[in-house]
Write a structure and sequence with these properties.
- It is a single chain.
- With about 450 residues, this protein is an alpha/beta fold.
- The protein has 16 helices and 16 strands.
- The strands form 2 sheets. Strands 5, 6, 7, 8, 9, 10, 11, 12 and 13 form a 9-stranded parallel beta sheet that branches. It has a 7-stranded mixed beta sheet with strand order 3-2-1-4-14-15-16.
- Helix 15 runs antiparallel to helix 16.
- The structure holds zinc ion.
- Zinc ion (ZN) binds next to strand 5.
């Protein structure tokens, strides 16, 4: 955190105060020539540059981002750091994908040296893409969690992560037990949860790889440590859904398995949520748990189409997840592009305002971190991304003819990627500037 400093950033400021689904354009705040004033790494105020500049002490350091968009840093609600090196692996759907690619890749994280190397690259890649908060799966190995938290702490990044719990239906070398997963998770919570900007998430991979005894342990960990998060996968692939029905014959649905073990609660995030029914969506909404919409992953693995419209109508908290390595990009802009197409396939429009809300404040609300990140409310940590309208010739050409903010945002999500990220600031400090990592 930058200490005892006053900084100001001038550019087009855009953030969201609420969900455009309910409020429409009023949910979005924009200052064409705006100023973001940051004191000690936190937002002090935002407003029109002309007005605020007149009031600032003359020695204030002002960074000139005029002509560029300054948005709150992106919140990625579902990603696997250990799968960085298997992104773009060919040919499989979920269950064979796990068997053929994921398990062999994750086995290597037994080696702390390897874990540290991948974690460093992973965190820098988040920053290159404008992501400043992420909810992350590590592997079954305790040291894999240490590595990703250390890498995040070194860059002051807000990170939620946890050790995968997995005691059946996986290779012996990746298997823990209910007791060992409880002990390892407890130790990691003690070491990391609440340290700076780091938070712990209890992380059973998905119901098929956890025994009932282990799912009970997961709930016990949450009960014993209020404020700790939970993450898992649900209803991603039809074959997986059928398998869960066989493994848990008493269950009403896949989501019901987690519900029965009291795992639907606030700060719980379920990736995918594709093959759900209205009852499931009602339970997600009522429990305060969130769904992570992982569009590129769902298309890449042929899993199915998430229905953002039904989720919104049911009042489910929704965030965006890249789900690397089944997801095909670290870029939230690329992921929003695919999210829009998925909604189109379901006959719905995902408006650019709602898309960027989901990637910022919506994600922060999914994680119950909206008291500290997600928009430019005074007091929040000054995490932000600077988008460059001249990033590519085509983007520049299209934007030159596009004055309206919503249309401009739509072009950033349709044509943009990491090249559009001019800079990423964490707690006010530039942690990525295009072309160089600081
Ligand atoms: Zn995943």
């Amino acid at each position: 955190m930058v200490e005892q400093t006053l900084q100001a950033f001038r550019g087009t400021l855009v953030d969201f105060v609420d969900d455009p689904q309910a409020l429409g354009e009023r949910a979005c705040r924009c200052f064409d020539d705006g100023l973001l004033v940051v004191r000690d790494g936190r937002v002090a105020e935002i407003g029109p540059a002309a007005e605020l500049l007149a009031r600032l002490p003359p020695q204030t350091a002002i960074t000139d981002y005029r002509g560029r968009l300054i948005l709150p840093g992106f919140v990625d609600t579902h990603i696997h750091y250990a799968q960085t090196d298997m992104i773009g692996s060919y040919g499989e759907q979920l269950l064979a994908w796990l068997e053929n690619y994921t398990f062999p890749t994750e086995r290597a994280f037994e080696d702390p040296q390897h874990a540290r190397e991948v974690a460093g690259f992973f965190i820098d890649e988040l920053l290159r893409n404008g992501t400043t908060t992420a909810m992350v799966f590590a592997t079954v190995h305790r040291q894999s969690v240490d590595a990703v938290f250390e890498a995040a702490a070194a860059r002051d990044l807000c990170l939620v992560a946890g050790k995968v719990m997995m005691d059946r239906n996986c290779p012996e070398s990746l298997r823990d037990t209910p007791a060992s997963s409880y002990e390892d998770s407890s130790a990691l919570i003690e070491r990391w949860h609440g340290r700076g900007r780091l938070r712990y998430a209890v992380t059973p991979r998905f119901a098929p790889t956890s025994s009932e005894a282990q799912l009970q342990m997961a709930a016990r960990l949450l009960d014993e440590h209020p404020g700790v998060f939970f993450q898992s996968h649900v209803a991603e692939n039809p074959q997986e859904v059928r398998w869960v029905a066989e493994l848990f014959p008493w269950s009403r649905s896949y989501l019901d398995v987690y519900d029965r073990f009291h795992l639907l609660r606030e700060r719980a995030v379920f990736a995918h949520c594709i093959h759900l029914d209205a009852h499931d969506r009602g339970r997600l909404a009522a429990s305060g748990a969130a769904a992570s919409f992982c569009a590129t992953s769902n298309l890449f693995l042929g899993s199915g189409l998430f229905d953002p419209q039904s989720a919104a109508e049911a009042g489910v908290r929704v965030g965006i997840g890249t789900d690397v390595g089944a997801g095909t990009s670290f870029s939230m802009l690329r992921t929003l592009d695919e999210s829009y197409k998925v909604a189109q396939m379901g006959g719905h429009r995902l408006s650019p305002l709602r898309a960027f809300y989901l990637a910022t404040l919506g994600g922060a609300r999914s994680l119950y971190l909206d008291d500290t990140v997600g928009n430019f409310e005074p007091g929040k940590v000054a995490d932000f991304v600077v988008l460059d309208p001249a990033a590519t010739p085509l983007l520049e050409r299209r934007l030159a003819r596009t004055p309206a903010l919503a249309d401009r945002l739509f072009l950033f999500m349709t044509l943009g990627d990491d090249r559009a990220v001019a800079a990423t600031h964490v707690a006010g400090r530039a942690r990525h500037v295009r072309g160089a990592l600081l």
